[in-house]
Fold this protein.
Amino acid sequence: MTTAVADAHDSHDEHGPAKGIGRWLFSTNHKDIGTMYLVFSLTMFFIGGAMALVIRSELAVPGLQFVHPEFFNSMTTMHALIMVFGAVMPAFVGLANWMIPLMIGAPDMALPRMNNWSFWILPVAFGILLSTLLMPGGAPASGWTMYPPLVLQTGDAFPFLIFSVHLMGISSIMGAINVIVTIINMRAPEMTLLRMPMFVWTWLITAYLLIAVMPVLAGAVTMLLTDQFFGTSFFLAAGGGDPVMFQHIFWFFGHPEVYIMILPAFGVVSEIIPTFARKKLFGHDSMVYAAASIAFLSFIVWAHHMFTVGMPLTGQMFFMFATMLIAVPTGVKVFNWVATMWRGAMTFETPMLFSLAFVFLFTIGGFSGLMLAIAPADIQYHDTYFVVAHFHYVLVPGSVFAIMAGAYYWLPKWTGHMYNEKLGKLHFWTSTIFVNLTFFPMHFLGLAGMPRRIPDYSTQFTDFNTIASIGAIGFGLSQLLFVGVVLSAWKGSKATDRVWEGSHGLEWTVPSPAPYHTWETPPKARVAGEAFE
Amino acid sequence: MADAERKKGIRRTTLIVVAIAVAFYLGFIMLGVLRS
Amino acid sequence: MIRKSFLSMLGLFVASNVRADWALNMPKGVTDLSAETYGLHMMVFWWCVAIGLLVFGVMIISLVLHRKSRGAKAADFSHSMTAEIIWTAIPVVILLVMAVPAAETMVKLEDSRDPDISIVITAYQWKWHYKYQDEDIEFYSSLARPSLEARRKQSGIDPNAVDNYLLDVDRPVVVPRGAKVRLLLTSNDVVHSWWVPDLAIKKDAVPGIVNEAWFKVNEAGTYRGQCAELCGKDHGYMPIVVEVVEPDAFQAWVDTRKESAEQVASTQ
């Protein structure tokens, strides 16, 4: 089979990828590794989603019908850990692996063998984490935030929780190292930094966040481990330690973490909207600076998760002002997307639909975020369903919709076939309707006084909880349509190189499906008529 | 095929980035040690 | 008919102390600071509505007009320094406008000087302990019996048949209306958080630390809240009830409790 691109000769290509399971276990190919990340992420999405359905089933009506409170707390904890570390982050790494080399004209990632380890650590980590469901004392039930002293009451599962978090962190750190080293060293000769596509830029910035903060999480959980087993008292008051210090360290990781989960989404959407508006991204340089500002600011706002912990007044003021400031570069990005659409010539294929929903619904999540930033008001919002509404808006119709958009956008490039557009649109509309049905009422629940992480509630919260549960079931079922879409991409019509009429960028100059090895010879500035910028 | 220049660049960037990660890890543990 | 339903929707939207079904908004509460907090919340909310209408409005217009199927031809502009400056500067100004009143309220919230009453609150897994510093009154406060029975898994009891399901306790906190009450919060085990929405007070109870909060209630009544920090399996089952009574009723309550405390002591 011919796998070479236009002017490359390479002796490797004659035999193509290895046969059998070895191809996947030992792969150093960014496309195969990207595929594995994406398949893993989709699997974890369904597992985490099943846990969400357990939660929403119990919360559908007042009274405790199905699960014990301890198990309910395990479900909320595991749901979050799996979605954050098993679904969202690996999905973005999968997209990065597939697309960054293609977009910058590199033959693969800089450190292909480390890339293999980055992926294969994950099934091990999650196997360990999920196995805690079967252990005495049950799975961790302290919330994904793992605050001490409560987390130290975890049963046998405790060291396995710590170990799996370490493994996930190592995987992310190695992946981030790979992204940075690849982008810095392996761009095609004439691709200056400011000529890189937005998806590559946002991933470069995200990778820096990752290498700074994943080690901090590792430090924090290491200190939990030593407090539990090795006689230290980092967080134990009886030994002179401070439980609040954990919160500071955790959120120093945790806040940049949420930007790690959204910046690549910004990148995906910044690729898709210009394509389907047939108009260049408005304010490209501005978008880069805005993303960098968001990343920088994300380091100095962490204590807005801790406004009720007993912080001195000056601390509260600083964190309130800094948090409010993030709205500025984020707003700039939203305005630039709208300006890209303005006086374009839009068509509404599924990737565009998900991207547009992203802009609308992420912005709503941004508004509730701004409300949360106001510290005195946050006294009423903190640890209520208002917060749950906020972060689900930015993560589900935010990050997850962007991942879906990217999957729809690049699926023809990966598989060589067009997916079923009707099925895609159906997936989009059902997802959008049900996601709003699930999470919008949670704003009201929080404002009306319903706390988070409770398995049962006072009867005046019934109606919105029932609606949210119905929405959740609808949303969960809708995602089965996505599986159908992915499968349909094997039987659809043949995809061209360019796939989408308005597309731009190096990845659209290679054949669909992209050959196993691409860019063995780096492209010149103008390849097949394609300018870099 | 990566040329020698590129290989050196890759090695250098990797070492710098690993150093940053290790610095954050140790730094935050030291923070815990010094504050307790 | 339309007017009635519009007005009732509006009624839902306006804050109320009554815990109503379908409640859309937070309560205005019964203290000066709870009203200020509510005011800040509504201010930011309306700013978000305004900005949202603007941005979404422009988006929707664009989605309708600038479609290829309508024959639109894509323009070729892709940057404008002026636009970037304007839509960076204006949000900064809006944020400053919001930040000033927020900062003023924060200063007031932290000022717990010169209280009339101090109550030491210790959180336990899964109940609260209250000790009135000056009166030598102390007691535990746990989930009330009717709720305790109904909450069990598959209890067969309809929660709707229980008064104040999950929001009722055996011994409430009693304070006098108009008095500045200072709370000293700590925990005996894990982190908990003491929250009563009508008082707009939420403060974490952390082992090894004593946190301070204060409130002054303007209106007599019964105000209910819940633990607001995950603290283990019964996190959802350790509510808070504050009864605000006229000063003489408070004094009567103090005297009764002192009497019964003496009775118990004398039988030891």
Q: What stands out?
A: The radius of gyration of chain B is 16 Å. Chain B touches chain A at residues 1-2, 6, 9-10, 13-14, 17-18, 20-22, 24-29, 31-33, 35-36 (CB under 8 Å).
